[in-house]
TrEMBL record, chain A:
It comes from Mameliella alba. Its main location: membrane. Keywords: Cell membrane, Membrane, Transmembrane, Transmembrane helix, Transport. This is Glycerol-3-phosphate ABC transporter, permease protein UgpA. The chain crosses the membrane at residues 21-41, 75-96, 108-129, 157-180, 211-231, 265-288. PROSITE patterns: ABC_TM1 (PS50928).
Length: 294, 361
């Protein structure tokens, strides 16, 4: 068989194999993405055509005080989740990796279990557990603060509690990534370090931590992106309240699009959040890489 | 403290119900190069790791010099180990890899620098100090691993199959370097290998391990000339010794006559002090290099494979009864492939083993 003929065959096969993905990607991802970009320059309602208004939506957004409140709440939530969840996942991963065989699989499954639950179930569980009147966690809160707290109706408690729920829900996946990272560190290195006179603490800081750093950086970046996209938990637990204390950017976008029928403005919000996530995560990833190289 | 050797007394190790080391005594004198050799699974690496403190000792006592270190931490034993995988810290430069133990001990910078540079000088690593392990070749990585051990100036160096990840040519070269290093440092070294050529060339003393016991220990040529059992005889020497089943068919004044099983026309007169009974079943061991081609009576070998190595050639074949036999020829191009050759062992070079595999002298 001549070489060009074989190449044509390979090309045809590769096209056939990627075609289903390409079709779905173009119809359900690429086309909507471009539509949103186009929509953000119009005053279109949710359904139907709109007038081209240039950058007016973006100008309006920059003067929207609610947008800054939302953005601030997003950053507050990132602060409450990204580093804490990574630290907790690392501690759990270090503990779990000391277990052997089936015991390790069992404990890992237990930690991973919440991750398989849909968000509606997660929020339902926690809404009940933290219920002001009947919640089984209220005695605990009462023991600490002196009185029961309606956590999702209290402006100071609402974001930290949503953070707790989110960490409980998503932590298993981070544990899994970090366990995989820990397993990649050859046991010889710990033996060599033990012979070199390293204490367990030094073994962690001088062997585990630097070698696990690429995975830790990955977890931090994935978490940052995921937590900036916060919507479901807020929508289901507090609906942005009280006093907009849990109002986040996607919440605002949702309300503009599906409740106030401002398709163009909502698209602009989505675009700004998208650019914000890209810039912040690229920036963070670069910073983490520099940190790891040192 | 003149004695800084390594002394093991009644060492045992079990993993659960499996006994890996079943009672080992050994004395390695200060400055000796000792080699543990044996087939895989014989416990040689486990024994080394017990000396290093990386495995707990189930029973017995390990002493380094005058100190009982059986239950000491690895770092307090005064040993340094070179791993088969090198176990270099991939995130640290060559310099920092070698300086690692000194940094942990918080030694002054000048001392660290002096020791690392000295070791790098010995091992020709000076130009590579700033590189990461991934940028080095296998042989260079191996040298960094050795350098990391040298920097600690231990009483005892432990090597766990350090050359088995290198290609054949580099292995020979590193073998020589290790021998030179041992002379230069004069430290006690314990080396684990499954390669009996490495063992023969490097060792002052070889310990042949099998089944959790030391089968025999001694100078390399003593093991070669005078193996104490069939296992050692077969393990030391390459290609390995030929074993032929035989029966004692007669007693002489200072020996016995042994007749090959299944080939009553071939018998040998063997000088022995401790003569087995008439009719006893024994095994005769003959090294390939002690079988000579002859025109007269002897073993008739049908050669089916000839390995011509240039300087020597090994002729692989079978006897009439089907027993495999290897004999060595000096030089090459004998063209023996497919022919029947008659070979006879050098007188006095036949080893006799009883049915249990113990040597009869």
């Amino acid at each position: 068989m001549s070489i060009p003929k074989r190449r044509r065959r390979e090309l045809r096969a590769s096209f056939l194999m990627t075609a289903p993905f390409l079709f779905i990607f173009i119809v359900f991802f690429l086309y909507p993405t471009f539509s949103v970009i186009a929509l953000s320059f119009t005053d279109a309602p949710l359904i139907g055509e709109g007038q081209w208004i240039g950058l007016d939506n973006y100008a309006k957004l920059l003067n929207d005080r609610l947008f800054y409140t939302s953005l601030w709440n997003n950053l507050y939530f990132v602060l409450l989740t990204v580093i804490p969840t990574t630290v907790i996942a690392l501690l759990i991963a270090l503990a779990v990796s000391r277990l052997k065989g089936r015991m390790q699989a069992l404990v890992l499954t237990l930690f991973f279990l919440p991750y398989v639950l849909p968000v509606s179930v997660v929020t339902m569980i926690w809404a009940w557990m933290l219920d002001f009147q009947f919640g089984i966690l209220q005695p605990l809160i009462a023991a600490i603060t002196g009185k029961p707290v309606p956590v999702f109706k209290n402006p100071y408690w609402v974001m930290p509690m949503i953070a707790v729920v989110t960490i409980w829900w998503t932590n298993g996946f981070n544990v899994l990534l970090l366990i995989a990272g820990l397993r990649n560190i050859p046991p010889d290195l710990y033996e060599a370090a033990a012979l070199d006179g390293a204490t367990p603490w030094q073994r962690f800081w001088r062997v585990t931590w630097p070698l696990l750093w690429p995975i830790t950086a990955l977890v931090l970046t994935l978490q940052l992106i995921l937590q900036l996209k916060l919507f479901d938990q807020v929508y289901l637990l507090s609906n942005g309240g009280p006093f907009n204390q849990s109002y986040v950017v996607l919440m605002q976008m949702y309300r503009e699009a599906f409740q106030l029928n401002n398709g163009g403005y909502a698209s602009a919000i989505a675009m700004v959040l998208f650019l914000f996530i890209v810039i912040v995560s690229v920036l963070q990833f670069q910073l983490l890489r520099i940190g790891g190289r040192k | 403290m003149k004695d800084a050797g390594v002394h093991l007394r009644g060492i045992k190790k079990s993993f659960g119900a499996i006994d890996v080391i079943r009672g080992v005594d050994m004395d390695i004198q200060r400055g000796q190069f000792a080699v543990f050799v044996g087939p895989s699974g014989c416990g040689k690496s486990t024994l080394l790791r017990m000396i290093a403190g990386l495995e707990d000792t189930s029973d017995g006592q390990i002493a380094i010099g005058d100190r009982d270190v059986t239950h000491e931490d690895p770092a307090d034993r005064g040993v340094a180990m070179v791993f088969q995988s090198y176990a270099l810290y991939p995130h640290l430069s060559v310099y920092e890899n070698m300086a690692f133990s000194l940094r942990l001990a918080k030694r002054p910078k000048a001392e660290v620098d002096e020791k690392v540079r000295e070791a790098a000088g010995i091992l020709q690593l000076v130009e590579h100090l700033d590189k990461k392990p991934a940028q080095l070749s296998g042989g260079q990585r191996q040298r960094v691993a050795i350098g990391r051990a040298i920097v600690r100036a231990p009483e005892v160096f432990l090597f766990d199959e350090p050359l088995s990840n290198l290609d054949a040519e580099l292995r020979v070269q590193m073998r020589l370097e290790l021998a030179r290093l041992h002379k230069a440092l004069g430290a006690t070294m314990i080396y684990v290998t499954h390669d009996q050529v490495e063992a023969m060339t490097l060792a002052d003393t070889i310990f042949v391990l099998q089944g959790g016991y030391v089968q025999q220990s001694g100078a390399p040529l003593d093991l070669y000339d005078d193996p104490s059992n069939r296992f050692v005889a077969g393990f030391i020497g390459s290609p390995s010794m030929n074993f032929l089943d035989a029966t004692v068919s007669g007693h002489g004044d200072n020996g016995v006559t042994a007749t090959l099983t299944g080939q009553p026309d071939i018998s040998f007169d063997i000088p022995l002090v401790d003569k087995p009974a008439h009719g006893a079943r024994i095994a005769l061991g003959m090294r390939p290099e002690h079988l000579q081609v002859t025109e007269g009576q002897g073993l008739r070998v049908t050669v089916d494979v000839a390995e011509e190595l240039g300087g020597v050639s090994y002729q692989h074949g079978t006897l009439d009864g089907g027993e495999p036999v290897i004999f060595q020829q000096t030089g090459a191009r004998h063209g023996m492939h497919g022919t029947i050759q008659t070979v006879t062992p050098d007188p006095g070079r036949i080893f006799v083993f009883d049915a249990e595999g113990d040597r009869i002298r």
